[in-house]
Specification:
Helix content is 37%, strand content 13%. By secondary structure, it is α/β, with parallel strands linked by helices. Helix 1 packs antiparallel against helix 2 (29-45), helix 4 crosses helix 7 (215-223) and helix 9 (292-300) crosses helix 13. The model has no long low-confidence stretch (mean pLDDT 94).
């Protein structure tokens, strides 16, 4: 099979499926086919494949990229109407590295407005639909990536994650996603909006894919020299991992109870690990996890070590112009006159409220740091925590606004800085993806990646949606 034939197959698949799911918001099919011809020419002229494999580990692999990342010649709006005419003139660092490794971008995919909501819908590109059920969400903010991968329109994809924006779409769409250890292992440069202040420690760029084995090679390319901070060359003995399990956050009043089918799937994982590997999975109850949403919110709005304030979301909505007034925007929205989505306006209002209680925020930041120490001590050099990906299976469109804080199940690990791999676990009784988060201590990404590969073999991994 030639590279041109592979790329043509994926182009055809996108043309077939995208009218239903609206995941790819701008394609570069002509450029991709030209790059595929160059790959075929290189292969025909190369003296040996070993050299090519070492120099171009992703040679000819079709890829899609979240629209929030700069891809030369592609739009870079992040769903913000003010930026609808912005075209990237360069590549984000990770995009450049993937291209240099031989990957061929097919296009860019949808996200939520300014990447700060867990339904991928905006006023520039509209709404993305879940390939397992078009009436369900794909998650956000890397929702277009989740949908395009689940629908077999791409091999691998690039996402970013500051509150679960890789892991929620991976969960809702039944694919794999990895949020690396924070600490600039993978560069965040070249995306809008980029983090500043304390949020640079929480934002992560990472890989998304249908098959667990693709996470590690993609992570190596994206991280570049930063990969040396991880232990990806260490051999993992699954029988020696200390597994811990937590069924829910302890009953936060801000989030939904965990769905019974999600709990059942997690129980099956525990039973399989104990029955097949002979390990003892330790049940834990970490009290501070009950305050995940409050801790994330407080730490996101705190000052960094230099005293720099976190950037206001309302400033980002104005895109370096006049800041947006959330109450005024809400009135305009009610009259159908706002260019912003309701979740973005609501986030602006929440941000204002958070600033009214600085004393309470300081206590929550302190609690977050204490929780981080507790988690690192629990997990140690050889521990993996099994934790629900989200309280519910993929919700119907618009319903997240009624349960806005459910993302706390993923968000807490951003502010704790821990590596997390999202792993699919088959389908629910309604044919919607189930899954689990695998969490390890800082820089122990190799443990969660190894467990994800194992669980893929045990539970089947990605399953092609039947309706697309």
């Amino acid at each position: 099979v030639t590279c041109v034939e592979v790329v043509e197959a994926y182009v055809e698949r996108i043309r077939e499926v995208n009218p239903l799911i609206n995941a790819v918001v701008k394609d570069r099919f002509e450029e991709a086919l030209q790059e595929a011809r160059q790959v075929d020419k290189l292969l025909s002229e190369s003296p040996g494949n070993d050299y090519l494999e070492e120099k171009f580990p992703l040679l000819g692999v079709p890829i899609t990229i979240k629209e929030a990342f700069s891809v030369h010649g592609m739009p870079n709006t992040s769903g913000l109407v003010n930026r609808r005419n912005v075209i990237a003139t360069s590549d984000a660092t990770v995009v450049s590295r993937l291209k240099q490794a031989g990957a061929i971008p097919l296009g860019v995919t949808n996200c939520s407005e300014l990447c700060m909501w867990y339904e991928s819908s905006n006023r520039v590109y509209g709404r993305t639909n879940n390939p397992y059920d078009l009436q369900r969400i794909v998650g956000g903010s890397s929702g277009g990536e989740g949908g395009v991968l689940a629908a077999a329109c791409s091999v691998i994809g690039v996402g970013s994650d500051i509150g679960g924006s890789i892991r929620m779409p991976a969960f809702f769409n039944g694919v794999f996603g990895h949020k690396p250890t924070t600490g600039r292992v993978v560069p965040n440069d070249g995306q809008f909006p980029n983090a500043r202040g304390v949020r640079t420690s929480f934002l992560c760029t990472g890989p998304m894919c249908r098959y667990a084995e693709d996470l590690e090679p993609m992570l190596r390319v994206m991280a570049g020299p930063g990969v040396n901070k991880l232990k990806l060359n260490e051999k993992v003995s699954l029988e020696k991992i200390k597994f811990h399990c937590m069924d829910h956050d302890g009953g936060s009043i801000f989030v939904s109870p965990v769905d019974k089918e999600i709990l059942q799937a997690q129980k099956k994982v525990v039973e399989h690990l104990e029955g097949t590997l002979g390990v003892q999975v330790q049940r834990v109850a970490i009290h501070k996890m009950k305050y995940s949403f409050q801790i994330w919110s407080a730490m996101m709005s705190s000052k960094d070590s230099d005293g720099q304030e976190a950037q206001l979301f309302t400033d980002l909505l104005g895109d370096h112009g006049k800041p947006v007034w959330p109450l005024w925007e809400l009135m305009k929205w009610l009259m159908g006159m706002s260019s912003h989505t309701l979740p973005a306006i609501a986030l602006g209002l929440t941000e204002k409220l958070m600033k009214l209680n600085p004393g309470g925020n300081a206590k929550l930041v302190s609690m977050g740091k204490s929780l981080q120490e507790e988690m690192e001590a629990l997990l140690g050099p050889d521990g993996v925590l099994l934790y629900p990906s989200h309280p519910t299976i993929a919700p119907r469109h618009h319903s997240p606004i009624c349960m806005p804080f459910n993302f706390a199940y993923t968000a807490i690990f951003n502010v704790l800085g821990l590596p997390v791999t999202q792993c699919p676990l088959g389908l629910s009784s309604e044919g919607l993806p189930l899954g689990i988060q695998l969490v390890a201590a800082s820089y122990n990404d190799h443990l969660t990646l190894a467990v994800a590969r194992y669980l893929e073999q045990a539970f089947g991994g990605w399953i092609l949606p039947g309706k697309v």
